[in-house]
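User: Predict the complex.
Assistant: Input components as received:
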Amino acid sequence: MPSPTPAHLNPLADAIAEHVHDGDTVALEGFTHLIPFAAAHEIARQGRRHLTLVRMTPDLVYDQLIGLGVADELVFSYGGNPGVGSLHRLRDAVEKHWPHQLAVREHSHAGLANAYVAGAARLPFAVLRGYRGTDLEEQRDIISSVTCPFTGEELAAVKAINPDVTVIHAQLADREGNVMLWGITGVQREAVLAADRAIVTVEEVVDEFPERTGAVILPNWVLSAVCVVPNGAWPSYAAGYSVRDNDFYQRWDAIARDRTAFLTWASENNLPTDNTSPAEDTLSGANASPAESSLTAENDTKEPADV
Amino acid sequence: MSEWDSADMMNVAAARELKNGDVCLVGVGPPNLAANLARRTHAPACRLVYESGAIDAKPRRLPLSIGDDDLAATATAVVSVPEMFNFWVGAGRIDVGFLGAAQIDRYGNINTTVIGDHKDPTIRLPGAGGAPEIASAAKRVIVIVKQSRRTFVEQVDFVTSVGYGPTGNERQAPGAGPTLVITDHGVLEPDPDTNELTLTRLHPGITVDQARQATGWDLKVADSIEDVPPPTATELTELHRLRDREPADG
């Protein structure tokens, strides 16, 4: 359950140190907009390991954490670089187990969104009409079916998700540590309310929230920490503060495609790695050559449209 | 006469299927181009819905992601992702859902998850996203995908989104399923009796034989094949302007 102490403004490093532990299930949410990149990098800098990372769209933020070796498991619903192509670190982890093996559980967007909804409501599962006939249903520990007690209709059931900690980025906090976000607000409210602990990074602190159509306000008593991190969503964006750095999303493709380029990027950004050699393939001890272990261009011809 | 290629033709043919008033759920890639092209040409009153939550989005430029600020800023309403999938997509409020595919079989079943085994794949694809529910609940589904033997396969490695089921008659979903598959070769439609995808239209310059060559099963061909009209000058101009991310009003 949420921390009983009122939220207050903390340095990000302190908030991550206190609330994100090795082995935790961690959700960093933000649907294209307001992705908490700065918090993710702090998690990596503090050397967290064995996390189960939950996120509808892993996006660059989890591609980075996966490549850095932070995650043992990924729960997600769409793992592409929006408008660009593959998430190469995610693919390398799943296909070649670099830097180590990554377990995967996957939903549709509807399934994962509803798993958060159930988690936020502290219900054991959510119900939706979907999944029928898909192979996603074979993941019986997270997707099953339930018969409607009123009509007899068979419906899909998804197991609730209750992260140990959810991290989001928002535009504003007030002096009491209440938080306000607007624009595309994705599944952040649900992810925060589903979690035991919640950390929010914000663009700035104001005395009073402005009037905003469609804004989500999270009261301080459901938050564990609020940290002022201007531009903390870069290279995603915060509506009203920044625009999406589409160039970086394009550039990431080349960085992530190549293990050496990725390790260079990590080192330049003071992000610790497991000192895995770029040539080292952890798949069944096979000593693949760098050429074989890097993802070939041929693989990339299978890019489905993004839906 | 402007230059165009088979990919342009595919996007133009997809755009033509949208009508004024249609509520269309749009993803990035070809669907995004097609839907915005329709809105800039013959269907200015089609309603674009993006799964990020933007309802009646009126993007001034082609959005690069489904979460672009321009979508939220120009939308009639912006809703949360759970609301989008429960109240709008799942509830059947979408007329047309555009889907892509890494693999598709003769009954319109779609794989966007893995090539190979799910637990140990040769190629890890992006996954489901909104597709399973769009495939299930949209009143009609239009698949936009380039035709090749790698993509049009006898059997998909993983069923991410259901078309008509393994043998064509197992569909149990509120929507009609993939009513059109628009490719860079032509258009396939489900046979009214068997639901087997059948070549019904060809793009200019493409032959039945070429379409067969690009299909990994023995492609069923309609008795009479319709010729798809080439892109008009207006369609091409707007398509290029969209690609160059130029605004609609010049």
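Residues 109-120 of chain A form the longest helix (12 residues).
Let me know if you want any component modeled separately.
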